[in-house]
Design a protein that fits this description.
heterodimer, A: alpha/beta, eight-stranded mixed beta sheet, four-stranded parallel beta sheet, 7 helices, 22% helix, elongated, B: alpha+beta, five-stranded mixed beta sheet, 2 helices, globular
């Protein structure tokens, strides 16, 4: 996979696809058949959208030609299908801005500074950006990046520090196990009586607790944060009402991710009920050069199905081709006749 | 009994009554979406995303089916659920749901 981004140079492409879920990935293939290059940008750290993030091991039964296929297998197959067209990717970055240029092209700006200069933009953003679920703590925001982190980007940041992790899912367990060897002190707070996720991880956490390398707070929640500019303590309350204050350098609420429409709402598109209204002729948004396909769009009769998104991707690419190549004559070609002309 | 009634507590605390025929193979999540409530239910009913979560207001008056492990797994891994939260995709339409009162937490409304 060609991963680029978080750089100071401009990425040039024919189509910038916002969202690397199944529909965005299939759009690479359809664009490639028409000799258009694609760059994809997604806020998640991996491709596949909700298939990889939420249900990678679930079978899907309504992909034509596949009586059953696991969600992650479908993503892997789509990546293989797109490979001849050498797509490039910026992952882990949320698109913040779309800037129209004088020639009609668009510069897509990511939240970490990546710039993608595209002739056409295709929004395949599914349900929006997957954002961390946040606990309901009144002063949480004031400690964000001042002791509160929702994602572990560099474990070394926590070396020799005192941390509290909150959450009961795989992410919380896996990081608690990993960081027990890195941190000076570590506590894991879980609102449940037990961990129902991966039994191996739960056993390891219990063993670390028994060895005194990790403090486990079950039936408990983090109910308060304290500090000046920097977080210095968290309050943990159990179901019996007992309160414990713990000194910390960092608090990591790891409660998984939840989709939010995010900055898409600010791009001047015709949005209704968290979806972009499109023209079903070509899935254009009404804003020249910007298309929307897959779960993010809406039109009369819309079905939020992957197979419908594939159809939308094909029609979008035909229209984008005409926009990018106004003087070229378009002829529909079949892969059975012409094969895949990679580039 | 040919149908049941459930009551959704709105944000202004008024209640909306929904009458649901029995004998349909649907979940409460599907009924709510059909009624136009803007819940995302992004995983479609697999108990994986918790975006169809409801807070049951009269758990002592109704006899709901017990949450299974996969439902408890996701509910317990959320930061903001109370003990009365359920995934509406895991509440299948049956007589047990008759007179159920619940509200949709603000964070699940799209």
């Amino acid at each position: 996979m060609n991963i680029v981004g978080k750089q100071n140079y401009m990425i040039l492409t024919d189509i910038c696809i916002i969202g690397a879920g199944p529909v965005g990935l299939f759009a690479i293939f359809e664009a490639g058949l028409l000799k258009m290059r694609c760059h994809l940008i997604d806020y998640l750290p991996q491709v596949g959208g909700q298939l990889s993030e939420i249900y990678p091991k679930k079978p899907i039964y309504d992909i034509p030609g596949f009586p059953t296929v696991l969600a992650q297998e479908l993503v892997d197959n789509l990546m293989e299908q797109a490979a001849p067209f050498h797509p490039t990717f910026t992952l882990g970055e949320r698109v913040e801005t779309l800037e129209r240029q004088e020639d009609g092209s668009i510069i897509v700006g990511g939240h970490e500074g990546t710039k993608i200069h595209a002739k056409v933009v295709c929004i395949a953003g599914g349900l929006g950006c997957f954002e961390p679920r946040k606990p309901d703590l009144s002063n949480l925001k004031s400690f964000e990046n001042n002791g509160v982190d929702y994602i572990v980007k560099d474990p070394e940041k926590y070396r020799g520090k005192k941390i509290v992790i909150s959450g009961g899912g795989d992410s919380a367990l896996d990081w608690a196990i990993f960081l027990a060897d890195v941190c000076d002190e570590i506590s894991l707070v879980h609102r449940g009586e037990m961990f129902r996720g991966a039994p191996d991880s739960a056993d390891k956490v219990k063993a670390l607790h028994e060895q005194g390398r990790l403090t486990l707070h079950l039936n408990s929640n983090v109910t308060g944060l304290a500090g000046g500019d920097q977080l210095s303590a968290v309050t943990i309350t159990n179901k019996a009402g007992d309160i414990t204050d713990v000194e910390v350098d960092h608090f990591l609420p790891l409660f998984g991710l939840s989709p939010k429409l995010g900055p898409i709402a600010n791009w001047g598109l015709n949005i209704d009920k968290n979806a972009i209204n499109v023209d079903t002729t070509d899935y254009s948004t009404g804003v020249p050069g910007i298309y929307a396909i897959g779960d993010i769009n809406n039109y009369p009769g819309k079905l939020k199905l992957i197979l419908c998104g594939f159809h939308e991707a094909a029609l979008m690419c035909q229209s984008a081709f005409k926009l990018i190549n106004p003087d070229a004559k378009f002829t529909l070609k079949y892969t059975t006749v012409n094969g895949i002309q990679s580039f | 009994m040919e149908s049941i009634k459930v009551f959704v507590q709105n944000q202004d605390t008024s209640e909306t009554e929904i009458e649901i025929p029995l004998g349909i193979s649907m979940s409460l999540m599907e009924i709510l979406k059909g009624e136009g409530y803007p819940i995302e239910a992004i995983c479609g009913g697999m108990a994986l995303c918790a975006t169809c979560r409801v807070e049951v207001l009269n758990s002592d008056e109704v006899d709901l089916n017990e949450a299974n492990d996969s439902e408890l797994d996701i509910l317990e891994s959320l930061p903001y659920t109370s003990d009365n939260c359920r995934l509406s995709c895991q509440l299948h339409i049956s007589e047990n749901l008759h007179n159920l009162k619940f509200k949709l937490p603000e964070e699940v409304l799209a």
